[in-house]
Amino acid sequence: MKHALFPRSGVTAIKLSDASGVKRLQPFLQTTIEWFDFIPATAKAVALQLNLMAVTPERGNDKHLGFSIIIPTLNEEKTIEPYLLALQPLRSRCEIIIVDAGNTVSSHAHLADKIISSAKGRARQMNIGASHATGDVLIFLHADTYLPEQALQLIEQHFGHQQWGRFDIRLSGDHFMLKVIAWMMNRRSRLTGIATGDQVIFVTRQAFTAAGGYPEIALMEDIALSKALKKIGPPVCLDAKVTSSGRRWERYGIYTTILLMWSLRLRYFFGADPQLLAQLYNGRSGFSRD
After folding, report:
1. Are the C-beta atoms of residues 28 and 9 closer than 8 Å to each other?
2. Torsion of CA 58, 190, 52, 274, to 10 degrees
């Protein structure tokens, strides 16, 4: 008669009080133990090979994460100072890295830990910043955006199990449609799991590396990175709001800019060349992003 717990094992029912029976069972038990040791070891090796294991930074209960705030800039000399001043209280826990494509922010060197010169291209600049960063978590911040209060603590609270995310956004400005646009951006992001650079993407260093960093394309690099990170895990969508300038929307027309952005996203979805999309963006809006 086969043992009820192991109907296919070939092990016959025995009395464990019988010494000879225990001896007969020992090879089966040894094989079982070896398999239970083998399975997790093999899974661990495979996961490490795929760069999908340990993307959450290891830390003890009394150790805080380290943060690197990376800011790509171009011709921001006259406007960036208040945004940098707002970051100064965070410098005990993070480093501020400016990657400047215009060589125009050197006068603000005392407000940052590193200023790195780079060729133009937001994706290229952010990748360069990441390569110089020392933090466990990378925060990609536009030069016209304020972080919410307690931003670092909010990120840290959610990084026990998830590896990347973004904030909700608020657009500064007087036009009532800016609130509608921000609400739509936040809602769309929650539904799709795709973040925009305006919402301030934050990501563990390991997950950023596993995703391959920002693809160095002329436009939609934030969407491309989000898609790669989604393969590692879903984003943290924080309710806390970053405040980003609504100047682009107000200067070039709210409705015109909405239609333009929707058109560009749709074209990208259907496979349009990001270089062509960047030309359309800069040509029609007059607002250069690089």
Report:
1. yes
2. -120
Residue closest to 203 by CA, chosen among 36, 5, 57: 57
Rounded Cα gap, residues 55 and 64, in angstroms = 16
What pLDDT, in 10s, does the model give residues 145-195?
999 999 999 999 988 789 999 999 999 998 999 999 999 999 999 999 999
The pTM (predicted TM-score) of the whole model is 0.77
Torsions phi, psi of 237, nearest 5?
-105, 95
Using CB atoms within 10 A of its CB, is residue 28 exposed (0-12), middle (13-18) or buried (19+)? Answer: middle
- Across 32-41, 122-131, 173-182, the highest mean pLDDT is recorded for 122-131
**C-alpha pair distances (Å), 152 with each of 57, 82, 133, 164:** 15, 19, 16, 13
The single residue listed with the structure tokens 């920002």 is: 214
pLDDT tens across 267-290, in order?
Answer: 888 888 888 888 888 775 445 554
